[in-house]
Amino acid sequence: MSNPFQVMGGQAYIEPAENKAQDLNTRLKNLINAAPVMLFMKGTPDMPQCGFSANVCKILNHVGVSFSAFNILADMDVREGLKQFSNWPTYPQLYVKGELIGGNDIITEMLNSGELQEVLKS
Question: Considering the entire predicted model, what is its pTM?
Answer without folding.
Answer: 0.89
